[in-house]
Specification:
With 424 residues, the chain is an alpha/beta fold. The chain has helices at 52-65, 73-86, 106-126, 171-185, 199-212, 228-238, 252-262, 275-284, 294-297, 299-312, 326-337, 386-399, 406-411; strands at residues 3-14, 28-38, 43-49, 141-143, 146-149, 190-193, 218-221, 244-246, 266-268, 289-292, 316-319, 371-373. It has two domains: 3-128 and 386-399, Enolase-like, N-terminal domain (Enolase-like, domain 1, 2-Layer Sandwich), CATH 3.30.390; 132-373, TIM Barrel (Alpha-Beta Barrel). It has a seven-stranded parallel sheet, covered by helices on one side. A three-stranded antiparallel sheet has the order 1-2-3. A two-stranded antiparallel sheet has the order 4-12. Bound molecules: D-glucarate (GKR) and magnesium ion.
Length: 424
């Protein structure tokens, strides 16, 4: 079997005005949808970053993949390395929360983008679900958590009608957001994206969530926007309310010191993002839970390896997410299903995406009882809806955004806004 067609389609979909440590989400999120077709008629699908630097590499790789054997992933990695060496991107300012734009991750991002599609193609040709190529399923359903955000009611320049979630700044509004997200998806744990408002207020929101959902495990994620002193002070206020404390303070040293001083379990998708940082974190005991993400950890098979490393070193494993659609959700779910030591419900932004903006046939995937069901059909079990793909590609062409920049977007609301870390 040989690869005869590679298509990369950049898309943009509506994204709500969600607040975070850098600033605020822009009105559209960018992704790329990848199709790999073999000479015997199978098509494998992938979804990855749609920021300009990531897209440039994906585009440059397309012609290099024609004729490759989709079972030879080592060959794919070599081709990716040589293409990235010729197209090494610069890191973008303000892209700290969008690892797709980090120059240091160019090889792992681009490899992962195509590896998922290669694996989907392999699995389809073998008539097996993709999870069977990752060691087989440990579970049929993968748990996800409700991912709450502070948000404004609508984008500043009103590019389209406001979303149906409304404003969420107060404790009562955050509890209402959680209630709706849980009612609609059955989530059994809750994460609050923090680092955006006053830390005491964000902790008060956790307290309000604890009161409203006493049996639900809770997490807070300030994206490294609290100084060590603030993170310790908030830990004292939070007491035993948290399942884990995600990236409260920046750096491996800061996290190590925080753990020493509070004893709280710390999770990260910021200070352990590759195997070198993993090694240094183990030496310093910086984090106790690693939030994996196949998009920048070098694909589904390297994510399986990461989970094994976590097992060896006695660390917990779960998964991180950026704004994404169904192909990424299913890829995450398959690797999570193949991870024996998945200890916590995974993150997903998926409920924030609008129901009319999915690129797969059948529309948005359902999250039931807080979990995504793993298909028994071949590959990831997804087919593209080409009308929808075309619509979201047109939106990419017209939206004017080419790289995520939450800092620049926040300056439209607050002209003197700057990127400061830690802000509090
Ligand atoms: O989308 O605003 C966001 C998040 O803050 C995202 O950028 C982070 O990468 O979800 C992420 C996280 O868990 O840190
Ligand atoms: Mg995080």
């Amino acid at each position: 079997m040989k690869i005869k067609r590679v298509t990369v389609t950049p898309i943009a979909f509506r994204d709500p005005p969600l607040l975070n440590a850098s600033g605020i989400h822009e009105p559209y999120a960018l992704r790329s949808i990848i199709e790999i077709e073999s000479d015997n008629g199978y098509i494998g699908l992938g979804e990855s970053y749609g920021d300009a630097p990531a897209l440039a590499i994906q585009e440059a790789l397309k012609s290099e993949l024609i004729g490759l054997d989709p079972f030879n992933l080592n060959h794919l990695r070599e081709v990716v390395k040589s293409v990235v060496a010729k197209h090494r991107p610069a890191s973008l300012a303000g892209a700290e929360l969008a690892p797709g734009s980090h120059a240091s991750k160019a090889v792992s991002n681009a490899y992962s983008a195509f590896e998922v599609a290669f694996l989907d193609l392999q699995a389809r040709s073998l008539n097996l679900p993709l999870v069977d190529l990752l060691g087989g399923r440990c579970r049929d359903e993968v748990p996800f958590s409700a991912y709450l955000f502070f948000k404004y009611a609508q984008h500043i320049d009103s590019p389209y009608a406001p979303d149906s979630w409304g404003e969420a700044l107060s404790e009562a509004q955050i509890v209402a957001q959680a209630k709706r997200m849980i009612d609609e998806n059955g989530f059994q744990s809750i994460k609050l994206k923090a680092g955006a408002l006053d830390p005491e207020h964000e902790v008060a929101c956790i307290k309000a969530l604890k009161k409203a959902f006493p049996d639900c495990p809770l997490r807070i994620d300030p994206n490294g926007n609290w100084s060590l002193e603030t993170a310790i002070r908030m830990a004292e206020l939070l007491g035993d309310d948290l399942q884990y404390y995600e990236d409260p303070t920046p750096g491996l040293d800061g996290m190590s010191e925080l753990h020493k001083r509070t004893g709280l379990p710390l999770a990260t998708n910021m200070v352990v993002t590759d195997f070198d940082e993993f090694r240094r974190s183990v030496e310093l005991n910086s984090v106790q839970i690693v939030l994996a993400d196949h998009h920048y950890w070098g694909g589904l098979r390297d994510t399986v390896a990461l989970a094994k490393m976590c097992d060896v070193w006695g660390l917990g494993v779960s998964m991180h997410s950026n704004s994404h659609l169904a192909i990424s959700l299913m890829a995450m779910a398959h690797v999570a299903a193949a991870t024996p030591n998945l200890d916590y419900a995974c993150d997903t932004h998926y409920p924030w995406q609008e129901p009319d903006e999915e690129v797969i046939k059948g529309g948005k995937l359902k999250i039931v009882n807080g979990a995504v069901q793993i298909n028994k059909t071949p590959g990831l079990g997804l087919e593209l809806d080409y009308d929808q793909l075309g619509k979201l590609h047109e939106q990419f062409l017209s939206c004017g955004i080419r790289s995520r920049d939450d800092v620049k977007q926040m300056r439209k609301y607050k002209p003197d806004w700057t990127q400061v870390k830690p802000r509090f």
